[in-house]
Amino acid sequence: MDRSPLEVAAAYHEEEHFVFLDSSRTNGDQGRYSILAWRPTAVLRLKNENPFPEIARFLKSCPSGGVIGYFAYDLFRFLEKYENLHGTDDLGLPDCWLAAYESLLVFDHQTNVWSFEGGAK
User: Fold this and answer.
1) Contact present, 119 and 66 (Cβ < 8 Å)
2) Residue among 41, 20, 23, 12 at smallest CA distance from 112
3) Which of 85, 91, 98, 104 holds its CA 20 to 30 A away from the CA of 115?
4) What pLDDT is attached to residue 27?
5) DSSP class of 7
6) How far is the CA of 96 from the CAs of 10, 47, 67, 115, in angstroms?
7) What percent of the chain is predicted at pLDDT more than 90?
8) With 90 as the cut, is the pLDDT of residue 25 above it?
9) pTM of the model
10) Quick one: CA torsion of 40, 42, 117, 96, rounded to 10 degrees?
11) What one-character-per-residue DSSP string does 9-62 give?
12) Three-state SS at 5
């Protein structure tokens, strides 16, 4: 495939739970790979609850090629107590969002080669 990661991302960006981890550095070992994934086998969304027990169960139950997601800054309230620190939820996003992907499309910026990692194509 002779397409750049950005071109491939543009072609798949409307797929369910599409993610694009694009490298900002294209030389050296750091930032060597760009990763694309879509249509996860499982998704975990949590809000206003301690996510850590659920995350552990989720990771144990997902035989996958990889898990991609995020942890919101607001999770600090489950790790440390700050009585005078309160955030405003102006976007309504989950505190934790994780998706298990069976397959990943990976671009190696050093070799300019695409690889397919995981299950069925």
Assistant:
1) no
2) 23
3) 98
4) 65
5) H
6) 26, 7, 13, 29
7) 56
8) no
9) 0.82
10) 90
11) HHHHTTSTT-EEE--S--SSSTT-EEEEE-S-SEEEEE-SS--HHHHHHHHHH-
12) helix
